[in-house]
Design a protein that fits this description.
Blueprint (H helix, E strand, L loop, with lengths): L1 H23 L11 E7 L3 H14 L4 E4 L6 H15 L5 E3 L26 H7 L13 H10 L2 E6 L4 H9 L7 E7 L14 H5 L1 H9 L4 E4 L1 H4 L6 H9 L4 H18 L9 H8 L4 E10 L5 E3 L4 E9 L3 H12 L4
Parallel strand pairs: 1-2, 1-4, 2-3, 4-5, 5-6, 6-9
Antiparallel strand pairs: 7-8, 7-9
The protein binds calcium ion.
Calcium ion binds next to α2.
């Protein structure tokens, strides 16, 4: 009898906790601390554009966006960042111009994966459509000011989806910065999957010394390596469904261009919007599984698992279909005239 009553009480307590838990933080609701200063460090890039779209759709944008060289030259990536933000109607984000080359002074070579302009050849048409002038692209190159704003904020989350040069420079400028950034969510690195020389991933390969400096800083890093991102391509059918909505035609063009480039350059079927995943993780962490592992980074951006390496939270899996369903939902919700 005593055991029976105890079991009933335990069951009732479990049900109460389950209801309480569901009420407090539903897995479907986006979550991010309200007092977070969200910094988005980016080199647009087609997958960066999808990340910007999601960021705008969920939150109205980041608080600070910093451009960097990477997928193409800083001249183009910075213009693309501002162009996409204006396209989405982002009035929230304060934009800064970041690094034009790596810590070692190496810039970019011509790279057509994202189009030579980094925006699927749409730069001129979008600038004209949005009636942008040179003055619209004239943001300050002032990483010191970005540091100052981060140091003044209560809680900082830093999303890095390009080379880590900006963050590495800012860590050097302010030694206390690493202790002040709560989380870094980073698309980069490859564990067994690579797309650049020296068994590295593109972002990390562009500035290996910056990766080493960021890894050595003690920052709390959640990594979205190629091994994770490549599991979740958008299929041709996904892209056709998105395009059929008729909203954001420039995004559809970007997706189609990316799909073609994946096949042209890597013989890979499907477009992988790598940079979208750390953004999704900021808002929907319950949809991901993440595991702590220890890594050393070399000067080429190659990662080696080692007991003496840095602990990094590594994304391993995500709820299938999450990316496509959210893109579709937001494209329906935010119908442009
Ligand atoms: Ca990127």
């Amino acid at each position: 009898m005593v055991i029976f009553v105890r079991n009933i009480l335990l069951t009732a307590a479990a049900c109460f906790l389950a209801v309480l838990s569901a009420g407090c933080c539903s897995n479907d609701e986006p979550s991010l601390r309200e007092d977070t200063l969200l910094v988005f460090d980016t080199d647009p890039g087609l997958d960066d554009a999808i990340a910007l779209f999601l960021l705008h759709s969920v939150r109205g944008g980041a608080d600070i966006a910093v451009s960097t060289f990477g997928n193409t030259s800083l001249e183009h990536t910075h213009r693309n960042l501002v162009t996409w933000m204006r396209y989405f109607g982002d009035r929230r984000t304060c934009v800064f111009k970041g690094s034009a080359c790596s810590l070692a002074g190496i810039g970019v070579q011509k790279f057509d994966f994202h189009g030579l302009d980094g925006i699927a050849g749409q730069s001129g048409a979008m600038v004209k459509k949005l009636a942008l002038t040179d003055a619209d692209f004239n943001q300050p190159s002032d990483l010191q000011e970005v540091v100052r704003r981060m140091m003044a904020a209560k809680h900082v989350s830093y999303v890095a989806v390009g080379p880590l040069t900006n963050l590495a420079k800012m860590l050097e400028m302010e030694p206390k910065l690493a202790g002040h950034i709560a989380n870094v969510y980073c698309m980069g690195g490859g564990l067994k999957v690579f797309n650049s020389p020296h068994q590295a991933e593109f972002n990390f390969c562009k500035d290996g010394p910056a990766v080493r400096r960021v890894f050595a800083s003690g920052l709390d890093i959640t990594l979205f390596p190629l091994d994770f991102t490549m599991q979740y391509p958008l299929t041709k059918k996904n892209i056709q469904t998105i395009e059929a909505l008729g909203t954001y035609p420039e995004i559809s063009t970007a997706l189609r261009w990316g799909y073609s480039s994946e096949w042209k350059y890597d013989h890979h079927v499907g477009f992988v919007p790598h940079d979208a995943f750390p953004v999704l993780y900021c808002f929907y962490p319950g949809k991901f599984t993440v595991r702590d592992r220890k890594f050393l980074a070399d000067k080429y951006g190659h990662l080696t698992e080692s007991p003496s390496g840095r602990v990094v939270h590594v994304a391993e899996s995500m709820e299938p279909g999450l990316l496509f369903e959210l893109i579709l939902k937001f494209m329906r919700d935010h119908r442009k005239p």
